[in-house]
Amino acid sequence: MFKTAFLLTAILSLFGPLKVYSFEPIFNARIDYEVGSNPQAICTADLNGDGKADLAVANLESHNISILINQGDGTFTSAINYAAGLYPASICTADFDGNGTADLAVTHAMDSVVILINNGGGSSFMKTTYYAGGVPYSIYAADIDGDGDTDLATANYVSNSVSILINNGDGTFSSPISYVVGGDAWSICAADLDADGTTDLALAIDKGVSVLRNNGDGTFSAPNIYEVGFTSIFICAVDVNATGIIDLAVVNHNGVTVLKNKGDGTFGALDYYETGSDPWSVIAADLDGDGFSDLAISHIRFWGRISILKNNGDGTFAAAVSFDAKEKSYSVCAADFNGDNRPDLAVANGLWNSISILRNGGNAVFPVAPYFWVGDLPSSAYPADFDGDGKIDLAVLNAGEYPYTERVSILKNNGNTTFSSADSYSMEHFAKSVYAADFDGDGKADLVAANDDDPGTVSLFKNNGDGTFAAAVNYGAGALPYNICAADFDGDGSADLAVANRGNDANYPGGFSILKNNGDGTFAPAVSYGAGGGTSICSADFDGNGKADLALSNAGGVSILINNGDGTFAAAVNCNTGISPSSIVAVDCDSDGDADLAVANRGSGSDYPGNISILINNGDGTFAAAVNYAEGVRPSALMVADFSGDGIADLAVKNNCDVLILICLGDGTFVSTLNYGVRDDGFGSISAADFNNDGKPDLAVTTGGRSDVQFLFNIAAFVFVCGDADRSGTAGISDITYVIDFLYRFGSAPIPVQAADINNSGTVNILDISYMINYLYKNGTALNCP
Questions:
Q1: Beta strand pairing status for 354-358 and 431-437?
Q2: Can you give the pLDDT at residue 264?
Q3: Which residue among 221, 519, 627, 680 has the highest number of C-beta atoms inside a 10 angstrom radius?
Q4: CA 53, CA 344: separation in Å to the nearest integer?
């Protein structure tokens, strides 16, 4: 059968280059951007005067602020950082100098406020520093003295006070006037609480809530203290029942308390709503478009999230609904970033030095990349249709907690973007990588895993034909097998195995091992080759002779291993890459028909955060020097698919806590798009397949620090030619061979799959092949794709 597939591939080669389509991929996940170190606060304003909401972020540990300019579609430029003094802890925005542009005010966690006057384009600022009080944790901008200029108020934690800085009218400020607030001041907001036309103050303090009413001239009366039962951390003003009377919402122990205003600036009933552990900040905005203010709460638990409390329309709130953010979500703000008239959210994530954008899909529904439990410490996954129902399932290798009870779990695809509970099978100790192929020629995808032990083995699980698997059969596989792939190396039509051996010393040298298939799904003893400590391995015909060659990533870079034609391999030819290569894939980057290479380099330390190396094939199995792309932090895994629908294979890069899509331009170069957030701490893997049968490649990410797999579904609309399964631009005989390969030899799926459903039956099967033959050669009925 492998010989047949090779002949069909030779036929396909007669049909010319691929046609290029223009497309931008979108996944239903949060979008992350890097900023400074330990961002604590975020605010939004039109900083460059183009009518779009930009972002400003206060970064505590890098002592600066980050400015991200909205590009007009809800995506943002890379952050530009500006010095803002020591330990900026809070940030707010207003037009302080009255010139029509948004300026910024930042508190230092010591004792001062920095005013950053915008020079007009959001690209440069004039800085002035003012004393405020002891440890000003929070700042708020409002017209306190009623003169039309925006003043400032700070909540001072150590001095248990609020400081008022009155604007002189030109963006400079008078010396602060302080008022005691009755406790440790954490946060501040301002609004006309007693309906007298002047701005009052409310602070979250350790004893509850402190309210200071404006005397009408910018001075304040003694505070009224409202106990809420817990230490209050953050406060915002909100009209909960749309009456024009301003109420208060305060974050405290595992929830938010709403204080109802009696209408005169005093507060009565307290309503408490659970939000889950470690809430930290709260904002009010009409997130579902019903005319009532909802609440968004950020959480600083290790796995960050945002809780949404939707207003029921009567001043009460529905139970909290949570959406994933990133670790240590200290602050949240809302604005319509993409111009669809719905407030989106921006979140400052302290632990990973980033912010996250959560686009509002309507009705206060934000991106959710669904996840499914599989087992402890999932580290590798491989997609295939294991049960033969036409839907792509997922095999996941779980490393297990100590004492390392490794198992492989099978997530069965239900066909509706959900997966059934995982069946699991016991593995050998230290299993590291899983792969699927039809090893025994029965048309069913079997499983094989590499077990990183001394001596090393691979475990074969034969498919029983129904998506269940027989007990493992183990084969020796060299020193410390770490990664695995399959191809027909000796040309006998059966899938053989290639294993990357990481080794560890002279007694266990690294390299790779070949296990030849005996033709019945059993394997001959491994033959090992030295080539450095192998971390990842892939196969392609690099020298164009029709034989499957190998590329191995190792500590020194990449080793190219050319097949001698009989399943043995020539001595390694080494190529340099970045530091600590961890994943390698073959991809035609320059559209010349040759297999090029992409390598994910983990890097080492903060000075070398990692990158992606692209090695272009010279056409004879030798490679040009690597071109490196500094994309993301600690890239650990790569996957190839046409995510943009233009007929050119792109790259998905798994970084710490996000996935980056690199769009291939077809000339050997790539452009970076957006970072899509996942629930992960940097370990695990990434897989690409059409999991929801819509013809577009989706992603599955194993979240190594968790116990689940997260799916990112491609939600874009591809443009295609009906019958053009191979993306050549026209429907022809090459598409017939492509569909045959897809249906019967685990070939690549048509992109989109609807391009091959030419009889509009809802599935791709042999009837579509017959339909195409009749159309092409017997003047049959016109093609009729969905």
A1: unpaired
A2: 95
A3: 680
A4: 10
Q: Report the topology of domain 22-26+371-712.
A: Methylamine Dehydrogenase; Chain H (2.130.10)
Q: Is 331:40 a contact under the CB 8 Å cutoff?
A: yes
Question: Contact at 8 Å (CB) between 614 and 668?
Answer: yes
Cβ atoms of residues 680 and 340 within 8 Å? no
- Decide if 557 contacts 574 (C-beta within 8 A): yes
Q: 30-180 falls under which CATH superfamily?
A: YVTN repeat-like/Quinoprotein amine dehydrogenase (2.130.10.10)
Q: Are 129 and 117 in contact (CB under 8 A)?
A: no
What pTM did the predictor assign?
Answer: 0.82
Q: Does the CA dihedral 687-692-693-696 come out positive or negative?
A: negative
- How far is Cα 118 from Cα 123, in angstroms, rounded to an integer? 8
**The pLDDT value given to residue 751:** 64
Cβ-count burial 329-353 (b if 16+ within 10 Å, e if not): bbbbbbbbbbeeebbbbbbbbbbbb
- pLDDT tens by residue, 565-598: 999 999 999 999 989 999 999 999 998 999 999 9
Judge whether 209 and 259 are in contact, CB under 8 Å.
yes
Q: How many CA atoms lie within 13 A of 750 on its CB side?
A: 33
Q: Residue 85 is which amino acid?
A: G
- Show me where the domains of the chain are located: 1-21+720-786, 22-26+371-712, 30-180
Is-cis flag, bond preceding 750, omega within 30? no
Tell me if domain 1-21+720-786 and domain 30-180 are identical in fold.
no
Find the range with the poorest average confidence among 21-25, 95-99, 130-134, 447-451: 21-25
pLDDT more than 70, % of the chain: 92
E strand spans, 403-487: 407-411, 423-426, 431-437, 446-451, 457-461, 473-476, 481-487
**What was the pLDDT predicted at 29?**
83
> What's the CA dihedral at 75, 73, 66, 190 to 10 degrees?
-120
pLDDT digits (tens, 9 = 90+) for 461-471: 999 999 999 99
- Which two structure tokens, joined as six digits, stand for 760? 């509009």
Pick the CATH number of 1-21+720-786 from 3.40.50, 3.10.310, 1.10.287, 1.10.1330: 1.10.1330
CA distances from 257 to 208, 248, 294, 597 (A): 10, 8, 13, 55
Identify the DSSP state of 706. T
DSSP assignment of 597-651 equals EEEEE--BTTTB--EEEEE-B-SSS-BPPPEEE--SSS--EEEEE-TTSSSS-EE
Q: What is the mean pLDDT of residues 483-488?
A: 96
- Are 33 and 675 in contact by the 8 Å Cβ rule? The answer is yes
Q: How many angstroms separate the CA atoms of 678 and 621, rounded?
A: 36
DSSP label of 176: P
Tokens of 11: 């036929």
Mean of pLDDT values over 330-338 = 96
Cα–Cα distance measured from residue 41 to residue 333, given in angstroms and rounded to the nearest whole number: 9
Identify each DSSP E strand in 119-227 by its residue range.
125-131, 136-142, 151-156, 161-165, 177-180, 185-191, 200-205, 208-212, 224-226
Write down the pLDDT at residue 683. 63
pLDDT tens-place string over residues 125-171 = 999 999 999 999 999 999 999 999 999 999 999 999 999 999 999 99
Residue 250 pLDDT greater than 70, yes or no: yes
How large is the C-alpha radius of gyration of the chain? Answer: 30
* Contact predicate 539/563, CB 8 Å: no
How far is the C-alpha of 234 from the C-alpha of 138, rounded, in Å? Answer: 9
What does the alpha-carbon distance between residue 133 and residue 137 come to, in Å, rounded to a whole number?
A: 10
H-helix or E-strand spanning residue 66: strand 64-68
Q: Residue 711 belongs to what H/E stretch?
A: strand 708-712
* Phi and psi angles of residue 619, each rounded to the nearest 5 degrees, phi first: 105, -10
